[in-house]
């Protein structure tokens, strides 16, 4: 396996990549003044732009949904790529050569055509194939679509095409556009035999796109009886762009709906994805040429994660046959924190969504998805049904088999409910079912020896605890160790209610926080200009706990003087944060334009920093005055005089601050 990417190369990517260019490929950005740019947020639906990018600080933040981070986080969140993939893409863009920690010889990225060339070749191929679909030769392919209820508009939406039957039509077309045979083979459009030839011949083609909409490969269906290749479907082979274990057909169209609805529907084939989307189920995706696997799960989770604390549901469509049941069983045995949010929509009469739509219309497809049942119930039902429940021994066996399954559920908070459900399926007493589950758990614990999994036999543990612990793991399994820790995912699990904490972010328009906010913006965006002016600032100068949290990180990082020497100042602070609300505030403060159109001069800095301290002095003055009023000067003369002295000192301190704001002039 390739080792970790060297830290200095990651730093180089961070330094050289331009966040406005990266985001500009997804979002139209306009200048918003103060060095900031604005656009419509890609993470939530909105009509007026609240998505801000600060190119000089390398940060983005949305004031609508509180998403924020750097270019790396942006790609991870929007495209669902891992930290490493995000770095690789940005390195390509910035022209940084990545090296690995373990490479004794500097192991470089595989030599070959740059990614942009391959993407461009696919784009042109897709256009070419789409034109061919309209040609007389494409008649058979059009008939195929027509029979399945897909009209020209549907074909356009999904970019469908037809690969001509000749052996090198596409090859010649793209050679004419300046692509080398090597590039066309690398991207999988052509293959090499005695000569270079088109990989897809005489087939109906679905372009497979990445989440950003770039075509990265094709799926090709057999439509001619005399096709010399028997396989019903051919796919692009593994290429630098196309990794079948990661590819989700339809994700470009579905990702936004998945994010906003926190629901994803997994279907079997290209036509099913099309049928679902056309029927209004816009969260449908499918794996391509391979079973839906763990990498797919991981990618979907990232898109679901984008919404808020992971509460999304993933719905698999299954026909009730053995293959479907096996697939469900496998999904259940896999990642269980995922399984608990997994649902199954069992197709009536075994009709897939495409056939169902043909027979019964769009509404039937929507009903199929709406009829979902939790995966565990589906699996449990399948297990129980294998036994003859009319016989006493059959019920005992069913209970035992079901209990084994229930006891494997790691979320202890669900075990009891599952046991009750098992009891009602079998027709047993709930207490009997619970006892059987306990016995199954004990047996499993013995089998596992020391029980490294964490107390499988322990009943009635703190509900939900384990599940939350797992969910809080930063970066997820695909992220590269500690490097995946930045961005909004870090430390999520430590806050039991991140959604609620978000509400604690101060209202931007609340004038009580104007000075605090502006000062922190200066600290984050202009550490050089603010310099040592902040030397006397203390955490208590900030009244909002989140701003106190931001300042605490600044102080711990060495203060603004340290920030002046660090181009990744904001990123470092954000990485150091364990509170999502503070992380979010940091990215917001890093992108929000200053309240001045000019670059901040010393006057501007002093006005805010010193005013911040003056406000603290005023608060303390008010406090002391109030205590003085409540103190009897005769009965508590000593205390009264002490406070009076304190008040005088505070007033003096405050006057000095006033003078600094007024300046020497
Ligand atoms: Zn947003």
Helix and strand arrangement:
Elements: H1 7-16, H2 19-24, E1 30-33, E2 36-39, E3 51-54, E4 59-62, E5 68-69, H3 71-79, H4 83-94, H5 115-134, H6 139-147, H7 152-158, E6 161-163, H8 169-176, H9 181-186, E7 190-192, E8 196-198, E9 203-209, E10 215-222, E11 233-235, E12 248-249, H10 251-261, E13 263-267, H11 270-279, E14 284-287, H12 294-305, E15 313-319, H13 322-333, H14 336-339, E16 342-347, H15 353-360, H16 362-370, E17 373-374, H17 375-385, H18 392-407, H19 412-426, H20 430-447, H21 465-471, H22 498-503, H23 514-525, H24 527-530, H25 545-556, H26 559-564, H27 569-576, H28 580-591, H29 602-630, H30 637-662
Parallel strand pairs: 13-14, 13-15, 15-16
Antiparallel strand pairs: 1-2, 2-3, 3-4, 4-5, 6-9, 7-8, 9-10, 10-11, 12-14, 16-17
Helix pairs in contact: 1-4, 3-4, 10-12, 11-15, 11-16, 13-17, 15-16, 17-18, 17-19, 18-19, 18-20, 19-20, 23-25, 23-28, 23-29, 25-28, 27-28, 29-30
The structure holds zinc ion.
Residues 41, 43-44, 51, 62, 64-65, 67 line the site of zinc ion (ZN).
């Amino acid at each position: 396996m390739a080792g970790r990417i060297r830290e200095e190369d990651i730093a180089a990517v961070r330094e050289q990549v331009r966040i406005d260019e990266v985001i500009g490929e997804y979002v139209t950005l306009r200048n918003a003044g103060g060095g900031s740019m604005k656009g419509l947020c890609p993470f939530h639906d909105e009509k007026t732009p609240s998505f801000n990018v600060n190119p000089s600080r390398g940060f983005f933040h949305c004031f609508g949904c509180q998403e924020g981070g750097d270019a790396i986080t942006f790609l991870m969140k929007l495209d669902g790529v891992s930290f490493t993939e995000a770095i690789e893409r940005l390195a390509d863009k910035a022209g940084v050569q990545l090296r690995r920690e373990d490479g004794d010889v500097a192991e470089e990225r595989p030599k070959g055509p740059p990614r942009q060339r391959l993407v461009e070749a696919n784009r042109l191929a897709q256009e070419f194939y789409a034109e061919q679909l309209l040609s007389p030769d494409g008649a058979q392919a059009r008939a195929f679509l027509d029979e399945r209820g897909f009209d020209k508009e549907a074909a356009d939406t999904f970019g469908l095409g037809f690969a001509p039957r000749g052996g090198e039509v596409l090859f010649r077309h793209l050679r004419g556009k300046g692509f080398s045979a090597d590039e066309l083979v690398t991207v999988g459009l052509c293959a090499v035999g005695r000569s270079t030839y088109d990989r897809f011949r005489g087939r109906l083609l679905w372009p497979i796109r990445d989440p950003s909409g770039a075509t990265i490969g094709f799926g090709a269906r057999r439509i001619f009886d005399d096709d010399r290749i028997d396989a019903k479907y051919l796919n692009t082979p593994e290429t630098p762009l196309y990794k079948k274990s990661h590819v989700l057909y339809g994700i470009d169209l579905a990702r936004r709906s998945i994010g906003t609805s926190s629901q994803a529907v997994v279907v079997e084939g290209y036509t099913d994805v099309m049928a679902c989307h056309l029927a209004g189920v816009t969260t449908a995706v499918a794996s391509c040429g391979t079973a839906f696997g763990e990498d797919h799960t991981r990618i979907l989770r990232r898109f679901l994660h984008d919404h808020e604390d992971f509460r999304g549901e993933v719905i698999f469509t299954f026909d009730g046959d053995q293959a479907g049941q096996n697939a469900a069983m496998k999904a259940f045995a896999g990642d269980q924190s995922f399984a608990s949010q997994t649902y199954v929509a069992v197709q009536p009469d075994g009709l897939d969504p495409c056939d169902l739509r043909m027979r019964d219309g769009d509404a039937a497809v929507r009903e199929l998805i709406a009829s979902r049942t939790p995966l565990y119930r589906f699996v449990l039902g399948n297990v129980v049904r294998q036994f003859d429940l009319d016989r006493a021994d059959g019920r005992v066996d069913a209970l035992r088999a079901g209990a084994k399954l229930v006891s494997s559920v790691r979320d202890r908070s669900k075990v009891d409910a599952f046991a009750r459900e098992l009891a009602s399926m079998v027709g047993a007493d709930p207490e009997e079912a619970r006892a059987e589950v306990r016995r199954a758990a004990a047996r499993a614990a013995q089998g596992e020896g020391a029980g490294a999994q964490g107390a499988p036999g322990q009943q009635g543990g703190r509900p939900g605890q384990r599940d939350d612990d797992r969910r809080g793991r930063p970066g997820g399994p695909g992220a590269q160790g500690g490097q995946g820790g930045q961005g909004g995912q870090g430390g999520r699990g430590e806050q039991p209610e991140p959604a609620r904490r978000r509400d604690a972010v101060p209202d931007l328009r609340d004038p009580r926080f104007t000075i605090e906010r502006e000062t922190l913006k200066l600290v984050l965006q202009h550490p050089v200009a603010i310099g040592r002016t902040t030397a006397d600032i203390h955490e208590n100068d900030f009244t909002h706990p989140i701003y106190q949290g931001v300042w605490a990180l600044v102080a711990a990082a060495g203060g603004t003087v340290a920030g002046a020497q660090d181009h990744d100042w904001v990123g470092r602070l954000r990485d150091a944060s364990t509170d999502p609300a503070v992380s979010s505030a940091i990215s917001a403060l890093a992108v929000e334009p200053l309240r001045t159109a000019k670059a901040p001069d010393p006057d501007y800095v002093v006005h805010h920093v010193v005013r911040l301290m003056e406000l603290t002095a005023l608060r303390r003055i008010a406090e002391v005055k109030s205590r003085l009023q409540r103190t009897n000067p005769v009965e508590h003369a000593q205390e009264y005089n002490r406070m009076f002295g304190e008040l005088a000192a505070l007033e003096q301190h405050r006057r000095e601050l006033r003078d600094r704001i007024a300046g020497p002039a």
